[in-house]
Amino acid sequence: MTRATILAMLLCSPALAQYATNARIDGWLDRTAMLESGNKPAAVGDKGRSRGAYQIQERPWRHYSRVPWRIGAHDPVESRRVARLILLDCERACKRHHKAATFANVRWYYQTGGY
């Protein structure tokens, strides 16, 4: 096999595609936490309706997690897991509506709950 063939196989591998997706979503998660709360896990906003670094409201929280919202939304690991699932659904919403899955478009769905 030539180097070009090996490189092409690596670039097309599902593992590499998954790695790229994870890296993109991780970047979006970091940006979302900074924009929503300054990355403060203890944050409470919207007159108590949004909680945690990602400012997730109770209704979507219950859809993605079995951990109680008032506790879990402030847990850095669980809230990041939930926010990741929400962002992935927002990305799918972009694709369903024939919009580019850019951070700006995904964030719009995240903020409006249109996922």
Measured between the Cα atoms of the first and last residue, the distance is: 44 Å
Q: Give the neighbour order of strands across the main sheet.
A: 1-2-3
How is the main sheet built?
3 strands, antiparallel
> What is the number of domains?
1
Pattern of helices and strands: HHEEEHHHH
Name the average pLDDT: 90
Question: Which residues sit in consecutive blocks of at least 5 with pLDDT less than 50?
Answer: none
Q: Structural class of the helix and strand makeup?
A: mainly alpha
Give the C-alpha Rg: 17 Å
Secondary structure tally, helices: 6
Q: How does the overall form come out from the CA principal axes?
A: elongated
Q: What is the strand content?
A: 5-15%
Share of residues in helices: 55-70%
DSSP summary, beta strand count = 3
Short description:
The chain is mainly α and 115 residues long. It is built from six helices and three strands.
Describe it.
By secondary structure, this protein is mostly helical. It has one domain (25-112). Helix content is 65%, strand content 5%. The protein contains six helices and three strands, in the order ααβββαααα. The longest helix has 24 residues, at 14-37. The protein is elongated.
Summarize the helices and strands and which ones pair or pack.
Blueprint: H1 3-11, H2 14-37, E1 44-45, E2 50-51, E3 56-57, H3 58-64, H4 69-72, H5 76-96, H6 103-112
Antiparallel strand pairs: 1-2, 2-3
Kindly list the characteristics that best describe this protein.
single chain; 115 residues; mainly alpha; 3-stranded antiparallel β-sheet; 65% helix
